Amino acid sequence: MEKDNIAVGLDIGTTKIVAMIGKKNEYGKLEILGIGKSKSLGVARGVVNNITQTIQSIQQAILEAENNSGYKIKDVVVGIAGQHIRSIQHTDYISRNNPEEVIGEKDIQLLIDQVNKLAMLPGEEIIHVLPQEFKIDGQSEIKEPIGMYGGRLESSFHVVVGQASSIRNVGRCIQSSGIELSGLTLEPLASADAVLSQEEKEAGVALIDIGGGTTDLAIFKDGIIRHTAVIPFGGNVITDDIKEGCSIIEKQAELLKIKFGSAWPGENKDNEIVSIPGLRGREPKEISLKNLSKIIHARVVEIVEQVFAEIKAYGHEDPRKKLIAGIVLTGGGAQLKHIKQLVEYITGMDTRIGYPNEHLAGNSSEEISSPLFATAVGLVMNSIENSTQSAVRMEIVNEQPKVVYRNVPPPVQRYEVEENYVEQVETFEETREVKTAAKVEAESTETKIRRSFFDRYVDKIKDFLDNAE
């Protein structure tokens, strides 16, 4: 297995679990090497509620991906979602000891670490701290403060918070499946990377990812994430409504929704009827497609109105916060017929369906280009991009093997070093007997390699899981 640019994303959803293996080709596009999916049995509304069943589903998806690709999966980047996720806006500042020195990464890291110490509600922990705009000595609207002079460095932050127990349960499932957790990414952010263009993020856009158990929202403006939310309703609620309203079993309800369902009742005529086979020799059941669409319409309207309430809470009606690019729909629920028109009707905003094919290699199958796999594609993209950008490679003198250090999130691959080199690596800070391969693009050898909070957070989960055994 090539070690430099192969990544694995694992999307643990309410309806399905997807393991996707990919790498960047010579044109910078994502080439999918293998995909495995299984029915998700132990997850409800994005939260694990049955450890054993979730482990079995993960193992099944991993095995299928390995068989399809010929690669052995050792560790994965996992998407985090669920009804426990919430986000807050926070502003914080630091006073610098020496304003005559230019602002560096250590100052920004100090500010981020300060935000990480915020007191949360009992049982909650911070998942992401995302800097937005900076202010230096009162000068606002600074996007890149590094290299500037100033005594007071201030920033507004988008802070994503979740239940620690839910995140640790995901970690336990990964570890028990025989693979390692190498990174966590908020699922709406992964989906956004897969389906949104940079122009849309600059203009202002709301990404709505309609999954099986939850509907995720991510709002971007001026290229910066401004708001995230998770609404605890999705495609499964629509299926339940059809099941109850038509008095049929869940499997039939799901098939009805996919094949004949529409979010716009006016499209169906009164005489359009579908016949459902009866159970155990009973008479077939006839269902009007107009009534089916009315059931679907009622629930979709409820979901869209809740999402629109979140968009209004962000401040969409403020001219400075206006989302010029409108709404992008993705996820399995975006495949519902006429949902685009309904969303436009309710919100009055331009809407399109988001496909992840813009970033995929030209030979990718039509199935992978579906909105259904947007999150999985985004997780693989994030993993590759982060491991490429944040790599700090160091080569030990006398042609010794390379040792690779990584920032956030940790990479999909791991490098093993023989014991007799470990001492040299550990004493790197004292001896300085190491040449940096990334001296120009990274920091000087005198600067410590700082590990971000997110890296430490993954380690904290690993420690918790190890001690729990």
Can you characterise this structure?
Residues 7-195 form the SHS2 domain. By secondary structure, the protein is of the alpha+beta class. Among the domains are: 86-163, Dna Ligase, domain 1, CATH 3.30.1490; 192-354, 2-Layer Sandwich (Nucleotidyltransferase, domain 5), CATH 3.30.420; 390-468, no CATH class. Helices cover 34% and strands 28% of the residues. The chain has helices at 51-69, 105-116, 164-176, 187-195, 198-203, 235-246, 250-260, 289-314, 339-347, 374-389, 419-426, 428-431, 453-468, and strands at residues 6-12, 16-24, 30-39, 43-44, 47-48, 75-80, 86-95, 124-136, 139-142, 152-163, 180-186, 205-210, 215-221, 224-231, 273-276, 285-288, 327-330, 351-353, 392-396, 402-405, 434-436. The strands form six sheets. A five-stranded mixed β-sheet has the order 3-2-1-6-11, with helices on both faces. A hairpin with a 2-residue loop joins β4 (43-44) and β5. The longest helix has 26 residues, at 289-314.
